[in-house]
């Protein structure tokens, strides 16, 4: 029995090691200063970089965070602090469950229909909004769970001092659980940083520097997709390089998020 | 002078009292204000959800009214002629996801049992962390790795030997090109292992310790405890975990589109290239020029939404029954 489960476990770890090592082995040689600062080279030329995609990914994450984080966190505060039970809250929880399960490409269709079609062209903000919709249920779920872990005695102590409820939430509950909330936010960001399908339908892609959020914008995942399908060796190498940057970004956020919660748990103990 | 000073202090007191009352009022207003503010952000989530359903149903109306139920059963996908049938995509999605779940379910349950019941303490954390990392890798990177590493590997080490000896069977017929249903299924399996493992671990964790220990005290081996206590108790929950994994596999887009071959055909062979619902949306959506073309793609999106919705609801229910059962068990 032990042998079987150890075998099964190592079977699952082989792909992980293979993916990470291939991305480092093939991607790292593509990395140089030009790679981070230059625009993509024209078809047939070598050189150039993916500077615009890296900036684009950060712009999209910024838009998604500006829209998604307030909605996610405030909704979670209402769910846990004001109305832990009841029709309204259980409906929201159910909707969050459903939203978590919706394929991201369907969110992309929605964002296209709602934000791109009426305007008539692809834009950075529609991509950001699509990512925000993916981010909101993740952030709401994790924030609510963290808030639930805040001991009630903290709230009661605050009420006993005559502090009103909203100030208790802002000054007692949120500071106490801030590390857990930040962890949830970071995991949400890490998740949307690698989303591709919704961006193909909304932000589309751009071979130049983006100057306005109402224009199409390049992003790392979309650029990887475009280059990976191409027949040029140089572009395929660029795809591996972009993959290297993306996975470093995602893994660093993930590891940082996890180390945050671990230290918080130690404090509680 | 005395009365003047008195008056002054009185005025001051009055002012500070007024300020206090004013502050109190302001706080009370803020208390309500903050509550309604958070309430309205909850409403945004609900509105968003309803809006998603409305947009999807509205925009797919054209295709629904033109093709009706035939949309699901027709094999013709010919944008040039204006014929749209989603069967090849539905078939590809179902077959690749089933391959994925058949491979992923036993592996995930094995990992969950290893991590929860057998692994030494020093190994538990790092292995669990690595499995979680598998979930953090974006699907486009799975696609990239799948296309350049897994496709050649499967072609040379799996498909070539199989087609050499079993090529006569329709299931394994055709040229071993690497791209196709089988590759997509295996890649999907890798991607859903962390999800099923995490959920299966949660379910296995709530199996009452008393029952396990009681059985061990009767002289049962670890093997017997797993097969006769843990797995039967956790069965509905594990089933739920697998269904959630299946739901994830159905909607997976980028990784699938890079390795499945993107051909809208139904072939019996697992080696043949196919297509999937999510992949066709990602590939053709921005190229769809006709209204009816776009509408058909949106209808595929709507179908995907409905299927994942039903699967998720069912899976949550199954997991919930296990959690409820364990509470009863502890009390008893």
UniProtKB/TrEMBL annotation, chain A:
Alphabetic keyword roster: Cell membrane, Membrane, Phosphate transport, Transmembrane, Transmembrane helix, Transport
Membrane association type: Multi-pass membrane protein
A GO biological-process term: phosphate ion transmembrane transport
Protein name per UniProt: Phosphate transport system permease protein PstA
One Gene Ontology cellular component annotation held by this UniProt entry: plasma membrane
The keyword Ligase is assigned to this record: no
Record-level Gene Ontology MF annotations: phosphate transmembrane transporter activity
SUPFAM superfamilies documented for this protein: MetI-like
Predominant location: membrane
Domain ABC transmembrane type-1: start-end pairs: 54-257
InterPro entries registered for this protein in UniProt: MetI-like, MetI-like_sf, Phosphate_PstA, Phosphate_transprt_permease
Location relative to the cell: Cell membrane
Organism annotation: Paenibacillus taihuensis
From TrEMBL, chain B:
UniProt keyword Magnesium, yes or no: no
Higher taxonomy: Bacteria, Bacillati, Bacillota, Bacilli, Bacillales
Family: Belongs to the binding-protein-dependent transport system permease family. CysTW subfamily.
Biological role stated in the UniProt entry: Part of the binding-protein-dependent transport system for phosphate; probably responsible for the translocation of the substrate across the membrane.
Protein name: Phosphate transport system permease protein
Topology term for the membrane: Multi-pass membrane protein
Highest rank taxon of the organism: Bacteria
Keywords: Cell membrane, Membrane, Phosphate transport, Transmembrane, Transmembrane helix, Transport
């Amino acid at each position: 029995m032990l042998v079987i489960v150890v075998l099964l476990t190592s079977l699952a770890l082989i792909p992980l090691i293979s993916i990470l090592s291939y991305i480092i082995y093939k991607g790292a040689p593509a990395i140089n200063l030009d790679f981070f600062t230059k625009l993509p080279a024209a078809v047939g030329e070598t050189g150039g970089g993916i500077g615009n995609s890296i900036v684009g990914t950060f712009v999209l994450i910024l838009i998604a965070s500006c829209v998604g984080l307030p909605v996610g966190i405030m909704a979670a505060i209402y769910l846990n602090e004001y109305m832990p039970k009841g029709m309204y809250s259980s409906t929201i929880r159910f909707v969050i469950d459903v939203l978590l399960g919706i394929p991201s490409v369907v969110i992309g269709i929605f964002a296209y229909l709602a934000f791109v079609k009426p305007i008539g062209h692809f834009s950075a903000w529609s991509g950001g909004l699509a990512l925000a919709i993916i981010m909101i249920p993740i952030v709401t779920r994790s924030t609510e769970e963290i808030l639930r872990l805040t001991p009630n005695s903290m709230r009661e102590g605050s009420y006993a001092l005559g502090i009103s409820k909203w100030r208790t939430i802002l000054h007692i509950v949120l500071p106490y659980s801030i590390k857990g909330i930040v962890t949830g936010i970071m995991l949400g960001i890490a998740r949307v940083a690698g989303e591709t399908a919704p961006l193909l339908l909304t932000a589309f892609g751009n071979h130049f520097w983006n100057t306005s959020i109402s224009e199409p914008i390049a992003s790392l995942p979309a650029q990887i997709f475009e280059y990976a399908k191409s027949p040029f060796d140089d572009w395929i190498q660029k795809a591996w390089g972009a993959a290297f940057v993306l996975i470093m970004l995602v893994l660093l956020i993930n590891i940082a998020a996890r180390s945050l919660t671990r230290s918080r748990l130690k404090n509680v103990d | 002078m005395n009365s003047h000073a008195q008056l002054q202090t009185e005025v001051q007191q009055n002012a500070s009292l007024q300020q206090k009352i004013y502050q109190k009022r302001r706080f009370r207003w803020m208390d309500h204000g903050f509550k309604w503010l958070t309430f309205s952000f909850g409403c945004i989530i609900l509105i968003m959800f309803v809006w998603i359903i409305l947009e999807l149903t509205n925009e797919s109306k054209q295709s629904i009214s033109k093709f009706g139920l035939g949309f699901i059963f027709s094999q013709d996908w010919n944008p040039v002629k204006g014929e749209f049938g989603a069967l090849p995509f539905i078939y590809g999605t179902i077959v690749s996801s089933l391959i994925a779940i058949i491979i992923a379910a036993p592996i995930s349950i094995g990992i969950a049992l290893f991590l929860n019941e057998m692994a030494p303490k020093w190994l538990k954390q790092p292995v669990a962390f690595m499995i979680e990392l598998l979930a953090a890798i974006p699907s486009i990177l799975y696609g990239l790795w799948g296309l350049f590493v897994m496709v050649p590997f499967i072609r040379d080490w799996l498909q070539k030997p199989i087609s050499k000896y079993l090529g006569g069977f329709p299931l394994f017929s055709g040229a071993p090109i690497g791209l196709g249903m089988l590759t997509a299924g295996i890649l999907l399996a890798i991607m859903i292992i962390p999800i099923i493992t995490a959920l299966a671990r949660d379910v296995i964790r709530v199996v009452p310790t008393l029952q396990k220990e009681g059985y061990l005290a009767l002289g049962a081996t670890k093997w017997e405890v797993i097969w006769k206590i843990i797995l039967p108790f956790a069965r509905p929950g594990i089933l739920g975990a697998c269904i959630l994994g299946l739901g994830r596999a159905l909607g997976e887009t980028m990784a699938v589109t890079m390795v499945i071959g993107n051909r809208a055909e139904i072939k019996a062979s697992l080696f043949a290239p196919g297509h999937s619902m999510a992949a066709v949306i990602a590939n053709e959506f921005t190229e769809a020029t006709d209204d009816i073309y776009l509408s058909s793609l949106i209808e595929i999106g709507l179908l995907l939404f409905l299927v994942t919705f039903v699967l998720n609801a069912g899976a949550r229910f199954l997991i919930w029954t296990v959690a409820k059962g364990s509470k009863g068990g502890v009390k008893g």
